[in-house]
Amino acid sequence: MLQYFIFSGIFLFLEHIIHVLGTWKFYKKLGVEYWKIFIPIYNIFILLKIYKRSIWWIFLLLIPLTSIILIFILWMDLIYTFLKKTKKNIILFFLSAGLYIYYINYFKKIQLSRIDNIKKKENNRGILLAVIFSFITHTYIIQPFVIPTSSMERTLLVGDFILVSKIHYGLRMPISPISIPFTHNNIIGNIKSYISIFQWPYFRLPSIQSVQRNDIVVFNFPKDSNHKIIDRKDHYVKRCVGLPGDLISIRKGILFVNHKKEKYFLEKQQAYFIKTVNIPLNIEYIKNKMDIEDIEYIGEKNDEYFYQIMLNKKKATQIKNLFENIVFIKEYILPIDFKEDCITPNYYGWNRDFFGPLHIPKKGEFIRLSLKNIHIYNDIFTYEKAKKSDIDSNIDSKKYYKVKNNYYFMMGDNRHNSSDSRHWGFVPEDHIVGKPIFIWMSIDWNRKSPLNIFFWKFRWDRIMRTVNGKYSYLSLFSLLSFIYLTSFLFKSE
């Protein structure tokens, strides 16, 4: 924690120096004494008073990105006070990332001819404050996400817009705090939206609750090779099936945790193999009426048709009872001796239906390393920046390695159509982002062309509903919207 605040303090001090070097002449023309210009924070307070902005804006200095926004706003105030508010000045200011003020400060003759030039109040101040407040909420409290893939069906569907609480598991303070607001890692293509030079140490505030087994969790993808900084890696959402210290294994597609069979939950999906005779399966009906998307036609032989469909048990029963031409519908389980190269560690020949046993590392525990288990823990050494020479010596001397962090095992509810910890390993604790708590919008779109709004259908039964499906607030939202609209119409009259 101390290290994080030291980094923030150093950044604020550098920001102070940049501000003073670029604005001291403006202060002088405004009649501010020299000694006041060089006092950190107080010099910002002076400008807030001059431009009649709330002193509460001073708290924006506590956050690196909002402090930059505040400095930019005050620099624009100064430029508009001493120069004409022209398009040229605005364009030069933004193209130079604000450094245009240095050119004015050192190379332009500035003169405050009339005190009236100082701005008094802006009509758009409320909009600006709303944007800043939204950014702070987005960064430090609740962040919206959209579900792009089917790995969590049928718990979370493609087109679900969810709100994720960042404080449930403890707010992880930004590690790369300098970025374009409301963006994650890229703007367009491979153009990054953040500055990687400034990196803060990992620090997390106390949590409301710890990650519980079977919680749905949003986290940064550990194996994202395009982004090295933790909080800029791609976002994934999965179910946490294994906690630090747990023993995970899968037999015939059934998950066992600490030798106990997982609790049945209705929405878990996996692949089903379906065979029909004489008549093909009515795929159009299944997609449109039963809201099932993952259907793969395998082929036809002697008037027999074969399909693979991702289903939960309830949907499988419905399809079986609905179509009389179905010969059989059964779970598709890979054989135990079938090796999937995409499963990690592939040293043991596991597949998605026969996996483990695998121990999940826990902070503070000691693991005895050997040539047999080194394949499991290789990624951990990378996350914890352990030296390869130390690891090799531990193996040779049969010593123990002390684990520095907690790790988690994540799986998608769509068990046969999910890239999860079976494929890329453990999730370190510092990669945890937050807990999904609410579905505020849900749209069923054409997955081949999701931007085609003419094919959008609203899933009204999922809108304004908690992620666990227990509570719906759509009716309350509709009532409040009606009251607001009615009051607005009466005010307009």
Please describe what this structure looks like.
By secondary structure, the chain is α+β, with helices and mostly antiparallel strands. Among the domains are: 2-125, no CATH class; 270-331, Alpha-Beta Plaits (2-Layer Sandwich), CATH 3.30.70. It has 13 helices and 19 strands. The chain has helices spanning 2-29, 34-37, 42-50, 64-82, 87-95, 100-107, 125-140, 283-290, 313-322, 374-383, 388-396, 421-424, 474-492, and strands spanning 142-146, 160-165, 216-220, 235-242, 247-251, 254-257, 260-261, 270-277, 295-301, 304-311, 326-331, 355-359, 366-368, 400-402, 407-411, 427-428, 432-444, 457-458, 465-466. The strands form four sheets. Strands 1, 2, 3, 4, 15, 16, 17, 18 and 19 form a nine-stranded antiparallel sheet that branches. The chain has a four-stranded antiparallel sheet with strand order 7-6-5-12, with no helix packed on it. Strands 9-10-8-11 form a four-stranded antiparallel sheet. A hairpin with a 2-residue loop joins strand 6 (254-257) and strand 7 (260-261). The longest helix has 28 residues, at 2-29. 26% of the residues are buried.
Percent of residues in beta strands: 15-25%
Please report the number of helical segments: 13
Classify the oligomer.
single chain
User: Could you tell me the number of beta strands?
Assistant: 19
Report the radius of gyration as a whole number of Å.
29 Å
